[in-house]
Design brief:
Number of domains: 2
Structural class: mainly beta
Largest sheet: 14 strands, parallel
Strand order of the largest sheet: 2-4-7-10-13-16-19-22-25-28-31-34-37-40
Helix content: 10-25%
Oligomer: single chain
Number of helices: 5
Shape: elongated
Strand content: 35-45%
Radius of gyration: 26 Å
């Protein structure tokens, strides 16, 4: 039967130039590839095809009815070394399990590729691209091997593949989604969950990260040693590993954080030596930072960050410091507009939407936990509340404020839709955001609202 199926495929090559396979049994996919002229198209009908194949010429493989290409548990299922290869509509399964051999569902080396609308199941690495600039990975679903998370491969991994687009994929249970030495990449509309690093960037300048949903990972997104990165309109929720960052930034320059929903993480946004250069500034604006153990956490040496029009809502600690020190050198308002703080107890006598007194982070208990993390054991206990109350009753005990926002907003900034991120995970995340906001809605409905536009050149006010 296998021989008859292969002969049918070869006859289609000769007559039509478009090989097909009616795969009643496992078909040798490599033979179909070898029989196809460069630039041709192979249409695979529903059925089973033997993996472990090499594509070394321009080619399109299109599946109809979700045909399965199975590597049989050994090595890489599909390897591509030619430019202009498109893989679509396949179930790619059964890679090997060797990490140092980087067994993958699909491996691309040295060439542009389009990988779209595939399902990756029981694979170590999902899609692994090396030196494959201008590639597209879109609308795929990536699974993983059922092994301990440190022994899994990455759902998507790119190395030196600049200007690529990673869009509208679902990645579940992989180790990381990694981009190394990959400049000007666009990562948009993806849903990444139940892994270690939802997104991990290193040495990747000019990246745009937008409208992704990163949830239930150890870390939502960690971005390192890069510059000119825009992170906007993402949902980063319930990331609770040992670090548990929604967003982590290390040694970054010219990074913009705009319009993100950072909800229910151990730490919402973490800054480590960012900005890196002494003449650079970073801007964090219009983000919802809510229900995290710590909303924003900074290293003591971090300076030249500007925070404005963010909503800090019911974080266990709105802003924290790793160790002793102060936040001097950072700004908590811009052009007379600060941030919204759910625990701001001031007033707005003239109704302009800006508080008439400064907002200060000077809680005694949280200040002590920054320098003595073991005290976090007492979080939300009567002992912690008594400690903070004692500082209110006896001002001599009150610490110097870690943060002082001179122009706090009394109305929460409004947040628009996620745009292109329209998957089920995005909708669920947005429903969760809405539910979390119900508790504050009554107070905010009476607060005045104020529309503002900012000129191109703006000055930060500490």
């Amino acid at each position: 039967m296998r021989t008859l199926s292969l002969l049918a495929g070869l006859m289609a090559v000769t007559v039509l130039g478009l090989p097909t396979a009616a795969a009643d049994d496992t078909v040798d996919l490599q033979a179909l590839i070898d029989a196809t002229p460069p630039g041709g198209t192979i249409v695979l009908d529903q059925g089973h095809y033997r993996g472990g194949v090499l594509i070394d010429q321009p080619l399109t493989i299109t599946g109809v009815g979700w045909p399965t290409v199975d590597g049989g548990g050994d090595g890489t299922v599909i390897e591509v070394t030619s430019p202009d290869v498109t893989i679509e509509g396949l179930v790619i399964t059964g890679s090997g399990i060797t990490l140092d051999r980087e067994d993958s569902g699909l491996s691309v080396t040295g060439a542009r590729a389009v990988i779209r609308n595939n399902r990756f199941e029981d694979v170590l690495f999902g899609a692994f691209l090396r030196s494959a600039p201008d590639s597209v990975i879109s609308d795929n679903v990536f699974g993983s091997k059922d092994v301990f998370i440190a022994n899994r491969g990455d759902g998507i991994r790119l190395w030196e593949s600049e200007r690529s687009v990673i869009e509208n994929n679902v990645v579940r249970g992989g180790r990381d989604t990694v981009f190394w030495f990959t400049d000007e990449i666009t990562v948009r509309g993806n849903e990444v969950s139940d892994g270690r690093y939802g997104l991990h960037f290193m040495y990747s300048d000019g990246a745009v990260v937008e409208e992704n949903v990163l949830s239930n990972n150890s870390v939502g997104a960690f971005i390192m040693y890069s510059r000119d990165v825009v992170i906007r309109n993402n949902v980063l929720a319930e990331n609770h590993g040992p670090s548990g960052y929604g967003i982590g930034l290390k040694d970054m320059d010219r990074v913009e954080l705009v319009g993100n929903r950072v909800i229910g993480n151990r730490v919402g946004i973490y800054f480590d030596n960012t900005p890196y250069a002494h003449d650079e500034y970073g801007y964090t604006s219009g983000n919802l930072i809510a229900y995290n153990r710590t909303g924003v956490l900074l290293q003591p040496s971090v300076k030249r960050n500007v925070f404005h029009e963010n909503a800090f809502i019911d974080n266990g600690e709105q802003v924290g410091l790793t160790g002793t020190g102060s936040f001097q050198g950072n700004a908590w308002s811009l052009d007379g507009v600060g941030n919204y703080w759910s625990d701001f107890a001031g007033y707005d006598a003239n109704g302009d939407g800006i508080g008439d007194v400064a907002y200060k982070v000077d809680d005694l208990y949280n200040t002590l936990t920054d320098s003595h993390p073991d005290l976090e054991f007492f979080q939300n206990t009567p002992a912690a509340r008594a400690m903070s109350l004692s500082a209110d009753l006896f001002p001599i005990l009150r610490p110097d404020p870690l943060v002082e926002d001179p122009h706090p907003m009394v109305a929460r900034p409004q947040f628009g839709s996620l745009g292109r991120g329209g998957g089920a995970g995005a909708r669920i995340a947005m429903l969760a955001v809405s539910a979390l906001m119900i508790g504050t809605a009554a107070a905010l409905m009476l607060a005045p609202r104020r529309a503002r536009t900012h000129p191109a050149n703006r000055k930060a006010h500490a």
